[in-house]
Amino acid sequence: MQTNLSEVAKRLPRAEEAERILRTCVHCGFCNATCPTYQLLGNELDGPRGRIYLMKQMLEGQPITEATRIHLDRCLSCRNCETTCPSGVEYHSLLDIGRAVAAELAPRPLADRLQREALRAVLPRPTLFKALGSIGQAVRPLLPAKLADKLPRTIAAPGARPAARHGRRMLMLEGCVQPTLSPNTNAATARVLDRLGISVVAATEAGCCGAVDYHLDAHHAGLERARRNIDAWWPAIQSGAEAIVQTASGCGAFVKEYGKLLAQDPAYAAKAARVSELARDLVEILREEPLETLASGKGRRLAFHCPCTLQHAQKLGGAVEDVLRRLGFELTPVPDAHLCCGSAGTYSITQPELSLKLRDNKLDALESGKPELIATANIGCQTHLDGAGRTPVRHWIELVDQALA
Question: Structurally, how many domains does the chain consist of?
Answer without folding.
Answer: 2
